Amino acid sequence: MPAMTRILRSTVAVLGALAFAGCHSLDVVDLNNPGLESLEQTPTAVGVNTAATGLLVGLRTGVAEPNGWVALLGAMGREGFNLNTNSDPRYVKEMLVGPLDPGDFGSSFWAVAYANIRNSVILLHAVDGVAGLSAPEKDGIRGFAKTIQALELLNVILTRDANGAVIDVDRSPTGAPGVIATKADVYTRINALLDEGRTNLQAAGPAFSFQLGSGFSGFDTPASFIKVNRAIRARAAIYNNDFAGALSALGGSFLDTGAPLSTGVYHIFSTGSGDATNNILQGAPVIRANPSLITGAQLRVGGQPDLRVTTKIVTGDPGTGTSGTATFTSDKHFTIYPTNSSPVAIIRNEELILLRAEANLGLNNIPQALVDLNFIRTNSGGLPPYAGAVTAAAVLNELLYNKRYSLLWEGGFSWLDYRHYNKLTTLDRLVTGGTFFTKMPFPTNECLARNPAPTQGCSPEVGQ
Predict the structure, then answer these.
(1) Comparing 111-115, 261-265, 380-384, 431-435, which segment has the lowest mean pLDDT?
(2) What angle do CA 335, 338, 340 make, to 5 degrees?
(3) Tell me, what's the pLDDT at 85?
């Protein structure tokens, strides 16, 4: 059995003891579980290290499921779809037409993120009092935990946007829930966590006391993990329109035009007993790509489509999803994840180069933005250099095109990016009554826990 598989299997047991949906969600496991009590009351070095590795298990939860992060956000950005509407019409009816229901798919990606955030809070408290770890080793755990907590919080606010999120997470699960903070305050908290995490990592020793596994190969020491921390800091800055901050963070990241575009950190899956598999894989009978990705692709010299199309999508058996008057048919299949063990990127070099282009464009450094855009066009897309209008509006469209095709079916980036620039309605609606959503609601349980309920985020999102 591979070492990382053994680590993940043992860690899943710990997570079962630790995880519960934070912020007063009603999805709470047995709080009398001895694993949780021991970590909170009598932590050991082994338990703390296992819990640190366990944050990666929590982070990947729901990423590569048919109703998970890649698939649902991918549908909202019209990248691809789950056409299994015979057994679950929500894949078309809710995600493409709406409304997004607080008690249904619309509430996704809240409870699982806060469960892992809560795990990180427990871990941070435990590491303060644990024996058997050196001060630098403790700082390594703190820096890692704060980075993962920030990434989970970023995922929450990316889905909730103007609805806000909870940042007061260090509370008793039986007490009053934390207030819903504004979007601006959430980003302030994310930035603080990442900056604190970098400081902790700088004070850490030459190695972590816990294992990160093959998904973090090359970034599995405190010094190298700082580059991941800065990469996430840059992503957060871009979505918060802090373009100068993004450039600063990218300077400390692993961005490198001399390295493979695939360089980065990944969620790892396997078919080993007790581990998680990638369930949005190539050949999945209900997963289809949007045919407009083919027709909308730019052409290489010679007339062939963008390499990012021909290497990521093939023609296969057709499939149709129907819900009411909404019907969608596609014979286009993704080839991005060939097997159940295929990894899914958390963040990689290609995105960082595009983020630098985006930051320069946001600062009106258009010529510098085009340097990176042309690098991606030629090296990833096989396209000739950009020859369109050199205006902010035209180059923004070129940026969005490249982010869509470079990061296709990896993390809902089409939805996030086109929404960021108020351009969702420039995408094809695909179905009769097709709707675009700018944010997701809070789960029903989260609203019921508050009196009065938040003024926004507790009603279905009707979209536009």
Answers:
(1) 431-435
(2) 135
(3) 65
* Per-residue pLDDT tens digits for 320-353: 877 777 777 889 999 999 999 999 999 999 999 9
The number of beta carbons lying within 10 Å of the beta carbon of residue 286 is 18
- Is residue 282 a contact partner of residue 317, using CB atoms and an 8 Å limit? no
Q: How far is the C-alpha of 73 from the C-alpha of 424, rounded, in Å? A: 13
Concatenated DSSP letters of 150-211: HHHHHHHHHHHGGG-EE----S-TTSPPPPEE-HHHHHHHHHHHHHHHHHHHHTS-SS-SS-
- Nearest in space to 409 (alpha carbons), one of 318, 313, 339: 313
Q: How high is the pLDDT of residue 35? A: 60
What's the one-letter identity of residue 329?
T
The Cα 311–Cα 408 span in angstroms is: 11
CA dihedral sign, ordered 50, 176, 167, 143: negative
CB 360 within 8 A of CB 247: yes
Angle, alpha carbons 287-284-84 (nearest 5°): 50
* Cα 396 from chain centroid (whole Å): 22
Residue 382 has pLDDT above 80, yes or no: yes
**143-171: buried (b, 16+ CB within 10 Å) or exposed (e) per residue?**
bbbbbbbbbbbbbbbbbbbebbbbbebeb
CB neighbourhood size of 119 (10 A): 30
Kindly state the tokens that stand for 291: 């045919």
pLDDT tens, 215-254?
Answer: 999 999 999 999 999 999 999 999 999 999 999 999 999 9
pTM for the complete prediction?
A: 0.92
Q: In this structure, are residues 198 and 53 in contact, taking their beta carbons and an 8 Å threshold?
A: no
